[in-house]
Specification:
Helix content is 17%, strand content 33%. A six-stranded antiparallel beta sheet has the order 1-2-3-9-8-5. A three-stranded antiparallel beta sheet has the order 4-6-7. β6 and β7 form a beta hairpin.
């Protein structure tokens, strides 16, 4: 398997979502490891703006040629934005998972819940343990 890109500036969930924290706004997507495992992404089911989730809730679905997987909220909060470009170009997740392939932006309702997210080093170890 190819080496996974794990940017230092992001936080990560055990379910392979990344989180870019900007005060109370958190942009979320799936990690490079997750998109490699899934293969070619063919569909992303997005939440609705205004939907509210608790940490760990399924907030959408990502479908690839290999599998269908739930997307899990890495933080609790309300959806502020979704990446509607993914409807026509779900492969952006494969091409640029940490950039143009982002999935949703949350308004965080429980900042303390973000303590369960991993930094890049911890997530790298988490991936390595599963990849063995």
């Amino acid at each position: 398997m190819a080496e996974s890109l794990i940017p230092e500036k992001l936080l990560y969930s055990a379910e392979d979502e990344w989180a870019r924290v900007e005060e109370q706004r958190v942009t979320v997507g799936i990690t490079d490891f997750a998109q490699q495992q899934l293969g070619d992404i063919v569909f992303v089911e997005l939440p609705e703006v205004g939907d509210v989730f608790t940490r760990g809730d399924a907030f959408g679905v990502i479908e690839s040629v290999k599998a269908v997987s739930d997307l899990f909220a890495p933080v609790a909060g309300e959806i502020l934005e979704v990446n509607t470009s993914l409807a026509d170009a779900p492969d952006m997740v494969n091409e640029d998972c940490y950039g143009r392939g982002w999935i949703a932006v949350f308004q965080v309702s429980d900042p303390d819940g973000m303590e369960s997210l991993m930094d890049a080093g911890a997530y790298s170890k988490h991936v390595a343990e599963r990849d063995d």
